[in-house]
């Protein structure tokens, strides 16, 4: 039996009780621990949740106490958010906290890395391509230990015509988004990394040409089949049940979901379930009242991630016209529950959905998105018998490519490439890519 690779997994954010990046970090690390001789290194705030998930502290994982810097940076970030500044500013602050965390990681594992006790050092999180690895990339290279980073995902430009939404989100720093390229360690990270996993083609395009040959595309998100699975999908009947999942913030487009459906709601052909909460909740209530569709739209508020499956199972379609989504994990979760996805054809979600399993809305101004979504609604209400085949195709695609275990196997291929056990980029394998490349791949 082949020897399992010895991997030091760095996931500063890795927590099974959270959502978003911490859940990605935890899920990816856990899947890799099942197929490697690995050890997880994370931040101290995640320690108890990981112990509760039956990993043994200091044996299977180590929690680094970087609270000396992380705690004040976190609280300062919360204050900034209250002033209306967006996530770009918060991410910029997070780089300060991560620099200190990685310094402590290197300090603790320096001797083990230099002694060759690991075959690969893999930074899973942060996912942001704007946050460098100022210590590990260069120092691992000097120790002749391959450093793998990713999946990097994010930094996707705002689509044209949405400056008003951009300002409502407080994304003032995004107008100077390229400043992160002068951060200490930015160029060194790309220069000394042996392999760079990119979580979307949109992020891949941001990698400078000299480093494209180091890149391998593996989408950021996947699903846990024990949490999301459509064992017995319900038959599709009228009215067709449409779900939206996400924070109720301007760029997610929950208002578009409702506005595009007004006539069909009143005709009894659709009902809408919106799962999430946020600053747009009052505006959504007012929109429903304005169009007299309150009885057809249910605003459920925030739903715990562990309870989302039972709610999704009662719906037929996911309507998700978010204009700036990096990963789109909710799209995969909905597909795993048998929902047919409708997504804006931009960045993460647009790469997850193929024409045989869902619908793409061409990215454009808000009015164009409303019109495009209305046409899709009309299509599915006129031909609901086409939805079951799309649903089954989506389920098959999830099971083949988008479980965490399937993703871990792709990462293993990257490890083999990084350790010179294979000569070619895994992207050259016919079954590796889950979305056609808009780029010319260089071996």
Structure description:
This protein is an alpha/beta fold and 443 residues long. It has 2 domains: 6-222 and 403-428, Glycogen Phosphorylase B (Rossmann fold), CATH 3.40.50.2000; 240-400, Glycogen Phosphorylase B (Rossmann fold), CATH 3.40.50.2000. Helices cover 40% and strands 15% of the residues. The chain is built from 17 helices and 13 strands. The chain has helices at residues 20-33, 47-52, 67-82, 87-114, 136-142, 163-168, 186-192, 201-204, 254-259, 262-266, 281-290, 308-312, 329-336, 347-352, 366-382, 387-401, 404-418; strands at 6-11, 37-43, 61-64, 120-125, 147-152, 195-198, 215-217, 240-245, 270-275, 297-301, 317-320, 340-344, 359-361. The strands form 2 sheets. Strands 3-2-1-4-5-6-7 form a 7-stranded parallel beta sheet. A 6-stranded parallel beta sheet has the order 10-9-8-11-12-13, with helices on both faces.
Average pLDDT number: 90
| SS summary, helix count | 17
Main sheet summary: 7 strands, parallel
Q: Kindly report the name of the CATH homologous superfamily of the largest domain.
A: Glycogen Phosphorylase B
Q: What is the CATH class of the largest domain?
A: Alpha Beta
Q: Give the termini separation.
A: 29 Å
Work out the count of structural domains: 2
What's a concise summary of this model?
The chain is α/β, with parallel strands linked by helices and 443 residues long. The protein contains 17 helices and 13 strands.
List keywords for this structure.
13 strands, 443 residues, six-stranded parallel beta sheet, 2 domains, seven-stranded parallel beta sheet, single chain, 40% helix, alpha/beta
